[in-house]
Amino acid sequence: GENVEQHPSTLSVQEGDSAVIKCTYSDSASNYFPWYKQELGKRPQLIIDIRSNVGEKKDQRIAVTLNKTAKHFSLHITETQPEDSAVYFCAATTTSGTYKYIFGTGTRLKVLA
Amino acid sequence: KAGVTQTPRYLIKTRGQQVTLSCSPISGHRSVSWYQQTPGQGLQFLFEYFSETQRNKGNFPGRFSGRQFSNSRSEMNVSTLELGDSALYLCASSVGQGAGNTIYFGEGSWLTVV
Fold first, then answer.
1. Is residue A76 very low, low, confident or very high in pLDDT (cuts 50, 70, 90)?
2. Which residues contact A71 (CB under 8 A, 6 or more apart)?
3. How many CA atoms within 13 Å lie on the side-chain side of B8?
4. Across the interface, do A46 and B104 touch by the CB < 8 Å criterion?
């Protein structure tokens, strides 16, 4: 069935360093890839997304890259700050039958001051 | 514009009981989907409704059901609760159905089964 693998499950970085989270999807028909940030006890919130007709997208310190051939996409956070500490989820929407979001298992990012 | 609203926020139930959770989507959003979140399992898709019809369903037993009303509000029901049903249940809404529609989450309903 459809699957999204996300790595690493936990990531610790020093404040100011960069963080990279990687996801691989299985359904080649997927064409929309959002990233959500979930702070402790709060709802997941969309931070950036990318569509299959684009290879890279940036928004200030956050960027996402997509490699459709390899079926993987990555989240890059530069100049990390303590407030970036949270759980990050990648997702892919599949067009097999009716659409649904398939989420990765999440990455707990800790930014050490 | 108000966000996705879920009620109740916290509840404790006993094994064998049933529970109903409610979700009010963002105004103008017609698609509502439900997810179960547990530690280590991430976000597991339960089902999605659009125009009062269930359009897709995840791999959960028949004890999990839902419905959507004409005003797009949705409810999900879990019958014969098991300890393993303890989780955060998240509702999300989007404007339309189809790949590429961004979904927006509610704060969730924390269910504890004892």
1. very high
2. A24, A25, A26, A28
3. 9
4. yes
